[in-house]
Amino acid sequence: MATTEAAPGQQLPDDREILDWELFGTASRALAQSVVDSGFEPDLVVAVARGGLLPGGAISYALGTKAVGTLNVEFYTGVDERLPDPVVLPPLLDTDALAGLRLLVVDDVADTGETLALVQRLMTAHCAEARTAVLYAKPHSIVNPDYVWRRTDRWITFPWSDQPPVQRTAE
């Protein structure tokens, strides 16, 4: 099966976590429940694009938080292949609008943790408080997210990235 996870010529590891759509729904609700149980009430959910878009949306619905923003960050180029450092891409989030707000930064995984660390630094500089939530955290991450659904050291296949981009069909 071709996927968007592997760079050309790469093979996906056989031993990996596989998150399907049904389990994603369960995981998102459980992660949102842990936020609620902690007493934290975010004013805004910031989804780290692209992997955090769907978890961020699902968690914002589960929390009843209507304000959702995104921050585009590029880091991974393939399975365990990445740029030297994460890079914030345009369009940028209006950081002036964050003053005094409590933010929940959501991503799909804290692998190295570098993306989450970058986003948390940027958000913390402009808001009252920024906490982090991820579906998965890996043991070697430089960030220990505030909320984690599952911890693993395996590669993760997400339902939104397990297929190649669609192609134009012949007319």
Explain how this protein is built.
- With about 170 residues, the protein is α/β, with parallel strands linked by helices.
- α3 links the parallel β5 (about 100-110) and β6 (about 130-135).
- The strands form two sheets. A six-stranded mixed sheet has the order 4-3-2-5-6-7, with helices on both faces.
- It is about 25% helix and about 30% strand.
- It has helices at about 20-40, 55-65, 115-125, and strands spanning about 15-20, 45-50, 70-80, 80-90, 100-110, 130-135, 145-150, 155.
- α1 packs across α2.
- The longest helix has 18 residues, at about 20-40.
- The protein is globular and about 50 Å long.
Average pLDDT for all residues = 87
Distance N to C terminus: 25 Å
- The proportion of residues forming helix, as a percent range, comes to 10-25%
Secondary structure: number of strands: 8
Oligomer: single chain
Strand content: 25-35%
List keywords for this structure.
six-stranded mixed β-sheet, 171 residues
Quick structural gist:
By secondary structure, this protein is α/β, with parallel strands linked by helices.
Q: Layout of helices and strands, plus pairs?
A:
Layout: E1 16-18, H1 21-38, E2 44-49, H2 53-63, E3 68-78, E4 81-89, E5 102-110, H3 114-124, E6 129-137, E7 147-151, E8 155-157
Parallel strand pairs: 1-8, 2-3, 2-5, 5-6, 6-7
Antiparallel strand pairs: 3-4
